[in-house]
From TrEMBL:
UniProt family annotation: Belongs to the LDH/MDH superfamily. MDH type 2 family.
CDD domains: MDH_chloroplast-like
Chain sites annotated for binding substrate: R92, R98, N131, R162
Annotated source species: Nocardioides koreensis
Protein name: Malate dehydrogenase
SUPFAM superfamilies: LDH C-terminal domain-like, NAD(P)-binding Rossmann-fold domains
Amino acid sequence: SSTPLKVAVTGAAGQIGYSLLFRLASGALLGADRPIELRLLEITPALKALEGVVMELDDCAFPTLAGVEIGDDANTIFDGVNLALLVGARPRSKGMERGDLLSANGAIFTAQGKALNEVAADDVRIGVTGNPANTNALIAMTNAPDIPKERFSALTRLDHNRAISQLAAKTGAAVTDIKKMTIWGNHSATQYPDVFHAEVGGRNAAEVVGDQGWIENDFIPTVAKRGAAIIEARGSSSAASAASATIDAARDWLLGSASDDWVSMAVASDGSYGVPEGLISSFPVTTKDGSWEIVQGLDIDDFSRSKIDASVAELAEERDAVTELGLI
Ligand code: NDP
């Protein structure tokens, strides 16, 4: 169809936004034939910087960019949006306690959930990138009672992509030969990147690697701490890769995952794999036409079980903390 897809991006003047907007506008989401309209939300002090970014978008003369609207009012910006990419979040600053961070973000995602509930299109899908992404998604979901729960997800696709890249480097395979990677749990240092169900060139990845020590002591911590390693090297946090993963996740959600593969998405649990119902936790999912299904029937051994349980326990703690704060 040539009706523009209305895509909202929050925190649009931030680092991730600076990479994300240009790729969205150039057709990375739905291809060169489907125009998109950008709806960009920022906090008031960042609107001037956002105007500068929009000048650059104009200057790219992207054929697929049908329009751009900016503002600081969620009810205006989210009006009629089909896809909302919630990137803006309050970063942890010096001396800020965990509770302060959760309440600052709680306020943002409560308001945005309510606004989406009021004004988004009936087919809206919401992807949360801003951290703590899983719990922010839970807050937005809880505050948008008229939007089906399965329309919310939090980003673990960057972790998924990082895991594929590390496994490809270790085995000498191309990234395209790696299938069925899974990130379980929270988008945090407790996440569990699972190679035991992954494949390298059609063979079981753990068997191809044949080195439990590498998996436990190298692969898992490297993937889980990659964000910190990038800050250390680059002097600022990963932005282009986070933007790229945000697009990968949204594209696969809308257009579908490959038939011989799955992707990782943090979605509201239905109790699968012992993850308490309602927690927004990362699972292996297949996607098709804007919906997702958790891959069922995977054998979870004791090692994987303990890793999944630890990350899910952290999610439950975050949920309890925001419940105590009255945010959900
Ligand atoms: P970034 O654009 O670098 O990051 C935005 C968010 O994405 C942060 O919460 C960050 O988490 C998160 N994130 C998720 N995955 C990753 C990843 N792999 N690497 C890096 N970040 C990741 O932040 P900026 O500070 O440059 O920009 C944020 C913008 O959001 C600002 O312009 C601010 O004004 C805006 N904002 C807008 C709001 C709104 O629209 N209502 C509300 C709050 C802020 P982490 O902090 O853990 O790095």
